[in-house]
Request: fold
Amino acid sequence: MAIASSLIEEKFAPEKESPRTRKRTQRRAVSAQLEAFNKGRGRAVIVGARKNSVETTALKAWLAGRIDVVRFEYRIGSGEFYVNYDDGTALPGRFIRSLRDKIHTLNRISSEPFDVTPVHSLKGRVRVRVTGIGERELATLTMLAGGLSGVKQTRHFRGGRTMLVEYDPKR
Reply:
């Protein structure tokens, strides 16, 4: 009986993998958020960049526009950016702080669809809530709405995401 149970245990025991096989079968998942790691003097790695995402595109543009970035490389397969940078001598660590700030901002991006909904209206004026665009775009939209025929005046309120439009009710 003891021999039979040991044969059964051997037969149904999980196979032991060699470290080499384990490395090939395990895949690293790309994290849902970007993270930056300082890899020594003048080198950084950014992980979690998904292919064709808004965050990845924005990060590429930001890195390309920085004068302290010597070169960067984006590897699609691993979702990693490899960055070589030059901090200079004045403020060591400034690039990595700026990079972490940028990544924090990019991680907070939530895609919200563009929408305009009336909040309150009286004769000759209407307040609308605008979602899906930033503060700058709202200011531009307010200015453009002021140029429409029949519109007397437009205003937007910072932080409120609303726009007030005063118009001629006869038109």
